[in-house]
Amino acid sequence: MIAALLGAGPALDLLERWQARNVVSQAEELARQQMFQEAITRLDTALKLNPTSEEGLRALAGIYSRFELPYALPIWRNLLQLPGHRDRDIHQYIDLALKLQRFDLAEPHLAELLSRTNVAETTRVQALEFFMRQGDFTRALEFARQLRDTTPSNNLHQIRVVRLLLLQGAENPRREAFEILLRLRKLSQEERRAVLEILSEATEAPTESVLGVLETIPPPPDAPPAEYFLRAEVLAKISEDSSRQWLTNAITRFRDDTPERQAELGAWLNRIGESSMLLHTYKLEDVARFPPVLATYLEALARTGKWSELQTAVAAPLPLDDWLINSLRAFAAARLGQEAMAKEHWRRALDDAASDPGRIRSLGDLSAKLGATEQAIEAFNLLTRDRLSRVTGYRRLAQVYERSRDTQRLRAVMREWSAHVPDDPVPDNAFCYLSGLMRRDVEVAYERAKGLMDRLPGRIAHRTTVALLELQRDHPDLALQIFDRIRSELPRAAPQTQLVYAAALAANGQSEAAKKLVETIKTDSLLPEEQQIIGRIRRGG
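Above: the chain's sequence. Below: its structure in token form.
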């Protein structure tokens, strides 16, 4: 009897570990079927049975990481403390920490990996990303060169060097970057796309240099639509005539292609503001049997304000999801002054999408694109109620409020976001910055912002926020001192940082330098309170 009781403990532990492995296997299968909520529930059960289950911790952290949720960070840390963790686990933890701007969490693990005799390629790529995200392009370039020198035949490593040279913003690095691009040969589809993206971003590059590179990477006969579209966007920045020719070529090439490629063509034309060309290319009867193309056609009707035509089109049975049809009916009715009908169709659209976060997101995105701001807000608010889609909802809400210059609601959503996801410094810093702009809860915001800056002293955004709050606390000298460490980076900084720096200069009696600086700031994306600061600086107040 006593012997049996003494043996019950180890036997019970063994049974629970066996049960935990079975539950983890079930959860992994659910995750493969995209049933993530159900998988999380199973994994929570497995970890209650065996809190040190490496498979369970890895699977749960992987699901949360898939959605870029900070809930994964402590789970990864628990896994990394176990003897059975893998280097791949460390890399996934670092990857998520970088995406969430938790450089303090990534740095010690990255340093340990870099100290090894044989440094993995993935580690060098993450080190490059670590320094680039912090604005230290010089250190990032060191790792890009290491990657290139280790594997000279890898075009992607060469392209990484090019991108960082162009980020230097000086003439000699720019010349070196284009010399590298002109030497590249036999590029894959992924590599050609990366080069085109770089050319699209290189707004200060000489036209002849860009055209020279484009000539060396002509699209092959089997190039996908996205490559043609990206090439057209590059040309649009340097030559309107060439851009129109490529636009015409793209339409000619893909208008009679597969429905999937026709849909890509339609989505692109809508995105670049060429919805009229989409309507000129197709007729409703041509696309009515192909749902992806049909959806882009109906969106084009809305984008061009053809509300009566849209209402007629969606009144007939169409092979599209109910949420999409009802949302388009709602938008058309609203623009035609049929308010009761618009409200009813919108209610139906929300009901049709409510059970699927992906549909809710698409509903909100479509509403935002068509200027239905309040409907977009309503849809994105629904996303914030779900643990897995919560961060996506907050991000989308922030974008809507920024575009509509609604500082008050933007601050409120940042406060709610930071409360739900306290491990994410981005909404916390944004809440503090907006508090400074609006002169609301300045002391509370200052303490939070100071904590962020002390924890992540290299982040320009955090220093900007503390400087703004020091100005609001009537400490102009301290505000200016905060920029000392990052003064060399200010010419490439965001407009908000340059604005606060200019305000600090003005508050310290350097009015002329402040006025000169604000004349170079791009103001089209600034909030009303930021525009007011610029106005005061220009007036010398």
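The radius of gyration is 27 Å.
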